[in-house]
Known about the structure:
By secondary structure, the protein is mainly alpha-helical. It is built from 15 helices and 4 strands.
Amino acid sequence: MTHALTLPRVRQWPPVLPVLAVVALLALPLTPGDEGGAGPADALSALVVVYCAIRLVRDRRRPLSRTAVLLLGLPVAGLALAAAGAASPGAGISGMGRYLQVFVLVPAAVMLLIRDRGDFRLLAWAFVGLAVWQGAIGTHQYMTGTGASYQGQDIRAVGTFGASDVMGMATVVSFGLVCSVGLALGRTSVRQRAVAAGCAVALLLPLALSFSRGAWIATAVTCGAQLVLAGLRRALTVTAAVAATGVILVGGFGLGSAQLQERIDSVTRVTDAPDQSVTDRYTLWAAAAGMWREHPLTGVGLKGFPEHRDAHASLALSAGSDTEGAGADFRKQPLLSPHNMYLLVLAEQGLLGLLALAGCWLALLVCGLRGLFRVRRDGPGLDCALVACSLLIWQLTDFLYADIGGPSTVLTAVCFGLVAWWALVGSGAPTARDTVR
């Protein structure tokens, strides 16, 4: 008797599969013209929102709790005011759409599509897989001199994101490293923890070769917080392995030692002989602060920073950032944002917008940490708690040095969805699928 090969019914497939597809699309190289704005992953994220809405209508269930509606809806009021004050209706609508995508709609959809901690871990491992892929490409770029230009050499690891989005690979690798450490410090099977620890160690090299000071600082802060939150005894082995590997890769083999040492030293030279990139950053920060002082409550309007920049920036600001390499020709990339999310929101949305967004993020962090302390004492889910809380800590730290923009931004939206699920849903009682297998 023959047995036909049967596939699982569509209803049995995890609802998070469309979210996994969004993550997978970020592994593809960008096509010409995609570097500056939305890409295929952004388009798919919109379809994920529609897919989630269709599921809610079909299942006829209440989608969000009152707490979730309050927290995820909090930024909308500030965005509406800032959109009304934009220079043009088109700028207001496009700016509001981008903020809603990253901080409201996609996070809500991800939160609703995750059924349990098993789905959460699936997405966390997808982050790790994407980071390993992008990190491998970035390391190859450094080794072969085919990366983005850095100090006259095409050695900067940028993965598939190209020279115009040098933070893209650094962000992806940082997310993967943070997820790996969280999974390694959890209470899952020994094999899963060992694989996660190995991935964390492997991702150290491409993160270093990204030459991204902001990503370094955010990752160091986050990993330190993870070790404290997980308990020092459990984290000791992982710490020793990471430190030993870092010494071997960077010190023993001398991989990027000269450039890395110069880049590390530049972190401390923010006031004493800073390089041009640091000078530009401080000048942009001062310009954003000037805009806020003129419009303290509602800001200058969404997407208004570029228009008001020159009126508030000093002559120390350069014409733009030089980009080339990784298959792209030389071009001047204009500096159209302050490279600080808090100052960008403060300048364009004012104090009301910043309080709404930051209030939402801090509330999610408090709820997530409360759930983490609960599962650390008893019960499964420590790995999910560590991943969710550490992703938010990393993002809030990185926002001091970066803002939203570029194809990798959609991954930030998925991160906030993971955080929202743990903080508002997943930290409760575990389901049958949550048991460690």
